[in-house]
Design goal:
Elements (H helix, E strand, L loop, with lengths): L5 E2 L1 E9 L2 H4 L9 E7 L8 E2 L9 H8 L1 H4 L1 H6 L6 E7 L6 E3 L3 H8 L6 E7 L6 E6 L5 H9 L7 E5 L5 E4 L5 E3 L4 E7 L5 E4 L15 H5 L22 E5 L4 E7 L3 E4 L7 E14 L4 E5 L3 E4 L5 E16 L1
Antiparallel strand pairs: 1-4, 2-3, 3-5, 5-12, 6-13, 7-10, 7-12, 8-9, 8-11, 14-15, 15-20, 16-20, 17-18, 17-19, 17-20
Amino acid sequence: MYPLKFQPLLKSTIWGGEKIIPFKHLDLQQEKVGESWEISGVPGDESIVANGADAGKNLQQMMDEYKGALVGEENYKRFDGQFPLLIKFIDAQDDLSIQVHPDDELAQQRHNSRGKTEMWYVIDNDGGKAHLRSGLSRAITPQQYADMIADNTITDALKEYAVQPGDVYYLPAGRIHSIGAGCFIAEIQETSNITYRIYDFNRKDKNGNTRELHTELSKDAIDYSVEDDYRTAYTPKQNEPVELVACPYFTTTVYDLTEPMSMDYSELDSFVILIGMEGACTVTDNEGNTIDLQAGESILFPATTKGLEVTPKGNVKFLETYV
């Protein structure tokens, strides 16, 4: 098999900004695009292959045809033939609602779905003005939580952060969170679209209606533990891999390269996705297939890939993720 690029699935939202289109080098007269779903196997929102002999097929068709050769034999069994990750770029011009996602057990019980553990990598912070919320700042009970939703004080119990490019946040299922205005991020998550809306700042739509809240559903989904700091600490380095997150659902590493890099996947039974953050590079796999990666692009390398040779065009920064 060969490296795969996909057509972006652009999602217009009430909070979307104007960064995704130029970042992805798209010539579209479209504003307020809040999300670009880069690689998605979510039913009804499957990504479409954009290159090679399989161009035009969706990701689920690719899964059905190539099975373990695409995602890894164990991954194919573990995830019941569904592609396990959803990759997004998110551009927030306004605050998103405060949310929580159920874990796998609760999502299966309630929705016959997987839960949603995810991570964020901050690409841009709107000149230093961006912020986000992640986790509880103090201990509260489920009843106190419901009371704070009712009296509009829930933000008082949440940790808020001013963000910088390169910041990383790991968000296990159950952690309350919210992307704030000015955030431009890459998101890696389980394949799930189950979100419980906790609080929406009493915003009204064009018809004067507030959006539905899921107070009772979210009450049982929240992890009420408190941590000192919800940021993921790491030391940036150039020309060597820096692991950011390793969890049961994905392992993600950042590369900041000015020199060629060899990447060995001979012992890995998984696909690998590279997500371009800055600059550009040429990537050649062990079968001699060559493909370019630039900021705003994501490439899926199938599980048959045993190694990559990355040649930067100047400086390049990208994320690598696999299961």
